[in-house]
Amino acid sequence: MYVVMNELHVPSERKAMLTERFGKSAENMKNVPGCLEFLFLDNEKEDGKQVVFTKWESKNDYENWLESDAFKRAHQQKGSSDKPAAPSNELQAYTVAHSSRSENES
Ligand code: HEM
């Protein structure tokens, strides 16, 4: 298993807008081969980061998605007047050494 997190440094006044833009992503990511989980995380701190968490069956599945039209569609600028939603970002990738999951998880 492989986990990739894209940490977005978002000014607090733009967090609500970005949260809304990610609203359909949970559904979108269900259709991506090898994507086991998607979470959009909002740090509790006022100036905290918003993080896109993705979990994959393999690094290869993640890399295939990076090459896909679905990825390109999700990342193209919506209009030329759009400001970038996240002025900077930092990517973190992990191989999963151990994991557990509750049977009751919704
Ligand atoms: C240049 C770096 C990147 C920036 C600034 C960025 C920012 C964004 C933004 C603003 C969106 C929302 C688009 C919208 O609907 O308006 C988005 C979608 C998304 N991003 Fe990125 N992203 C970057 C690269 C990546 C990478 C490398 C990953 C890998 C984990 C990733 C994961 C995702 C996911 C899972 C979505 C939702 C896709 C969907 O709905 O189909 N992003 N990203």
Describe the secondary structure blueprint for this structure.
Elements: E1 2-9, H1 15-21, H2 25-30, E2 35-42, E3 50-56, H3 59-66, H4 69-75, E4 88-95
Antiparallel strand pairs: 1-3, 1-4, 2-3
Bound molecules: protoporphyrin IX containing FE (HEM).
Residues 4, 6, 21-22, 24-25, 28-29, 38, 52, 54, 70, 74-75, 85-86, 89, 91 line the site of protoporphyrin IX containing FE (HEM).
Describe the structure.
- There is one protein chain.
- This protein has 106 residues and is α+β, with helices and mostly antiparallel strands.
- The model has no long low-confidence stretch (mean pLDDT 92).
- It has a single domain, classed as Alpha-Beta Plaits.
- It has helices spanning 15-21, 25-30, 59-66, 69-75; strands at 2-9, 35-42, 50-56, 88-95.
- Strands 2-3-1-4 form a four-stranded antiparallel beta sheet.
- Strand 2 and strand 3 (50-56) form a beta hairpin.
- The two termini are 21 Å apart.
- Bound molecules: protoporphyrin IX containing FE.
- Protoporphyrin IX containing FE is lined by residues 4, 6, 21-22, 24-25, 28-29, 38, 52, 54, 70, 74-75, 85-86, 89, 91.
What descriptive keywords fit this protein?
4 strands; Alpha-Beta Plaits; binds protoporphyrin IX containing FE; 106 residues; globular; alpha+beta
